[in-house]
Design a protein that fits this description.
single chain, 5-stranded antiparallel beta sheet, mainly beta, 1 helix, 7-stranded antiparallel beta sheet
Length: about 220
């Protein structure tokens, strides 16, 4: 039987649900699309320190901004948004993307016994944050944005459409701040890892932030 009414959680009253011409349910946004996850404490983000880190080439085995969801976490990670801003140094022209590792050898939760041989976990309140700042919830997915990780080579899975030209540290270049919204299209299940990379090696430093929310594994 179709639902024609819904309960208003604020007033406790049953209200009619409006339908469009083609029986589509009419809805309007009240908060941002990630607000519910943020207010529930499920949304996290990690950031490099303000000085930034280099974005490695896609064939790297030493990623700098990386999420690792080992078995036993009990959650899937849904990527939200990636941002980067040129901080210092000369950049070789390139495009930013996402590299994935999903290998049976990742079926270990401890670095050194899996495809991840070295992993520097972020420190809550320094590199790792919860969107609900007073909540203090810790992420279950392991995360690092300190540039001291070692992993097997991964697979380039997604260009983020963020192209940076040759940026000189002595010049101001428009468009040197980048942002990509995953809009829920990348899910990180247990036993997989992703990291940010580029199609060219560069020594320029970028201040970067990657956010995600965690839901119980299906």
């Amino acid at each position: 039987m179709p639902i024609s009414q819904g309960r208003n959680v604020a007033t406790g009253k049953d209200e009619n649900i409006s339908l469009g011409k083609y029986n589509d349910q009419l809805v309007s946004g009240l908060h941002g699309k990630y607000a519910a996850q943020a207010m529930s404490g499920n949304l996290h983000y990690m950031s490099t320190l303000v000085a930034g880190l280099a974005i490695p080439i896609s064939t790297t085995t030493a990623p700098t901004v990386m999420l690792w969801n080992p078995p036993g976490s009990g959650v899937d990670g849904v990527l939200c948004r990636y941002t980067a801003g040129h901080a210092s140094g000369d950049a070789v022209a390139g495009t930013i993307g996402l590299v994935s590792v999903s290998n049976f050898s990742l079926n270990a939760a401890v670095a050194g016994t899996s495809a991840v041989t070295v992993f520097a976990d972020n420190v809550f309140g320094t590199n790792l944050f919860n969107a609900k700042h007073t909540g203090g919830q810790k992420a279950k997915i392991r995360n690092s944005s300190q540039g001291t990780n070692t992993i097997i080579a991964g697979t380039w899975i997604k260009a983020l459409g963020l192209d940076y030209h040759a940026v000189l540290s002595t010049s101001v270049v428009a468009g040197s701040v980048f942002q990509y919204d995953f809009d829920g299209e990348v899910v990180l299940p247990q036993g997989t890892a992703v990291f940010v990379a580029a199609n060219a090696a560069s020594v320029a430093l970028f201040a970067q932030t990657l956010s995600w929310y965690e839901v119980p594994s299906a």
